[in-house]
Amino acid sequence: MTTLPSSPIKYAVIGGSGFYRMEAFEETEELFLDTPFGKPSDAIITGRLDGVPMAFLPRHGRGHLLLPSELPYRANIYALKMLGVEFVISISAVGSLREELKPLDVVIPDQFFDRTRGRTAESTFFGEGIVAHITFADPVCPVLCDALEAAGRELDGVTVHRGGTYLCMEGPAFSTRAESNVYRQWGMDIIGMTNLQEAKLAREAEMSYATLAMVTDYDCWHPGHADVTVEMVIDYLNRNVATAQRIVRGTLRRLAATNPTSPYASALKNAIMTRPDLVFPETRRRLAAIIGKYLPL
């Protein structure tokens, strides 16, 4: 296994579709980590962005090799925890379910809605002899969202929307028209395939998490726009990447200047339900990065 950095890395970015590397990243190093849940999606790249230490992980792997249902969500978040990460910015390509959320707009959602199937195991670090129930009513970090919003609003020509619900669907196919219209009736705002599992795991790992959602299309509900095609999505993905890069840089500058403490640094304090003496030593070792301060070896 790769040796971990000598100092914790407080900030991390998970890059979504089209976002496979960080521009202006300096002093970089690739870390190939092993976790109790297998290997992450790709090497984690560490370095400095405008002097701020950070880690970058391409969610689908460089070259886009993994389906949303194939992602090693637990390994990804666990690996970031091993590095000491406290704040996670998740870049995500999404479809819009609202007229006012236009392609190339930026959305910072504050809620998630689960429409995935078969991802239970990848949605929690717990089970197999240890039970925990995190509080998840408000799934994103307001400190991180504030920084993302401020960084986005300082950019000319970029429209930023704060708030809204991200519907997480199974994929890999895009929605049917009937599904898209039902999601709109439910009051959903944007649709994607990956962020809910990350958000749950980040909370269990006592990290702050927020999504920077980059709108690529109107899903397939909009009568005045063509149905979603891969070509359309890729075109807008490429145009969104530059915007996301600039927002990430502005956000990190703000975070580094204020040096905030994660509001969720004690999210597990009262969440572990299993009686400590019943938790096996092997379970304590496997989850050491997550539960070590509450259930030491």
Automatic annotation (TrEMBL):
Catalytic class of the enzyme: transferase
Give the GO molecular function terms. Answer: S-methyl-5-thioadenosine phosphorylase activity
Residue ranges annotated for the Nucleoside phosphorylase domain, each copy included: 10-252
Keyword set, alphabetical order = Glycosyltransferase, Purine salvage, Transferase
Q: What domain of life does the UniProt record list for this protein's source?
A: Bacteria
A GO biological process of this protein is: L-methionine salvage from methylthioadenosine
> Mind telling me which HAMAP family this protein's record contains?
MTAP
**Can you tell me which family this protein belongs to?**
Belongs to the PNP/MTAP phosphorylase family. MTAP subfamily.
- Tell me the subunit arrangement: Homohexamer. Dimer of a homotrimer.
Q: Report the protein name in the record.
A: S-methyl-5'-thioadenosine phosphorylase
Gene of origin? mtnP
